[in-house]
Amino acid sequence: MAVYTEVPDEDLAAFLKAYDIGEAVAFKGIAEGVENSNYLLVTTQARFILTLYEKRVERSDLPFFLGLLEHLSAKGLNCPQPVKARDGAVLGELCGRPAALVTFLDGVSVRRPTAAHCAELGRALAELHEAGRGFGLTRPNALSVAGWRALERSARGRGDAVAGGLDALIAQELDALEPAFAALDLPTGVIHADLFPNNVFFLGDRLSGLIDFYFACDDVFAYDVAICLNAWCFEPNGEFNVTKGGALLAAYHAARPLSEAEIAALPILARGAALRFMLTRLVDWLDTPPGALVKKLDPLEYLKKLKFHQRARGVADYGWRP
Ligand SMILES: Nc1ncnc2c1ncn2[C@@H]1O[C@H](COP(=O)(O)OP(=O)(O)O)[C@@H](O)[C@H]1O
Ligand SMILES: N[C@@H](CCOP(=O)(O)O)C(=O)O
After folding, report:
1. What is the DSSP letter of 84?
2. Residue nearest atom 19 in ligand 1 by C-alpha distance
3. Can you tell me the distance from the alpha carbon of 30 to that of 27, in angstroms, rounded to the nearest whole number?
4. pLDDT per residue as tens digits for the range 162-192
5. Where do you find CATH 3.30.200.20 in the chain?
6. Nearest residue CA, atom 7 of ligand 2?
7. Which end of the chain is more exposed for a tag (fewer CB within 10 A), N or C?
């Protein structure tokens, strides 16, 4: 359960005084999520999500995240919209944490995406990349290749207790991926960087909205595609589903054509994305105290994915059909 900070009734009431959104009629912690504390707030006017920003979110990044939501909403993308307080501010403070209210999106996330879901996702990802153009703020990707060494250092010497040989494998991957990423010269812009199935809502078969932009940053567009190939196209038994991969890539390409260089780079980008999620999960796995109210995510799921990417012979292995 991702509620790190409990909000007492009187603190909530004081916080809501700054807004013109009606009276609170229900307020409850949301079990899903990993990074921040999220609450569902129902008022006499509407439903909202109240987020208290926790560990990995830097306060100085919040204008980027909240401004991006406003920019994307204005471009017609269905994502949460920050709610302004009476003084126009979108960022407040609650229980000693930065906090914001955003609009509630209808829809449900899918646990077992089909090829049709992957196609919807591919199209929406391309639309997100297009909609991000012209956003005035920038944010480097703290969890791209330049950030992986620090994660490796913080897990160093402890990986082998999770899987035999893991420490050496991570060190070798970094040695291989750092020069490979440095050699890439691909189109960049605003990416979501965490568009996993839990952050995508559907109404029936149609994708209805995207949430959780708190890893969004400026980076290579095709890296975002590679993150999604990892998150959407593997089966629970660890096999990559080329039908799903092909559907995701074709739908993305139809909405934002991928260049030859982007297509050729997908296997190495997917390998890097697998390492990135394995590393953050590994650090959380090792450092989350026993009894913490959060579901720890399995780093070894991403070790299996990484091994698939190491073996991949080319983009055809991901279902790409020219
Ligand atoms: N704008 C929103 N509309 C509806 N539900 C939301 C919204 N934002 C978050 N949620 C719910 O809260 C859960 C956790 O949100 P998320 O942003 O993924 O948290 P975290 O960043 O902590 O991982 C989501 O799975 C979803 O159920
Ligand atoms: N998607 C990441 C964890 C981040 O969780 P989210 O709830 O913020 O999407 C992973 O699977 O490792």
Report:
1. P
2. 33
3. 10
4. 999 999 999 999 999 999 999 999 999 999 9
5. 9-103
6. 33
7. C
Largest CA distance in the chain: 59
Indicate where the chain has its CATH 3.90.1200.10 domain(s).
115-318
Ligand 1 geometric centre to CA of 213 (Å): 10
**What is the helix, strand, coil percentage profile of the chain, to 5?**
45, 15, 40
Q: How far is the CA of 23 from the centre of ligand 2 (A)?
A: 32
Residue nearest ligand 2's atom 5 by CA? 34
pLDDT in tens, 53-89: 987 789 999 999 999 999 999 999 999 999 999 999 9
Tell the CATH topology of 115-318. Answer: Aminoglycoside 3'-phosphotransferase; Chain: A, domain 2 (3.90.1200)
User: How many whole angstroms from 85 Cα to the centroid of ligand 1?
Assistant: 21
135, amino acid identity: F
Q: Which CATH number describes the domain made up of 9-103?
A: 3.30.200.20
Ligand nearest to the CA of 57: 1
Name the residue at shortest CA distance from atom 12 of ligand 2.
Answer: 277
Residue whose pair of structure tokens reads 């909405």 in the numeric block: 255
Q: How many angstroms separate the CA atoms of 187 and 158, rounded?
A: 37
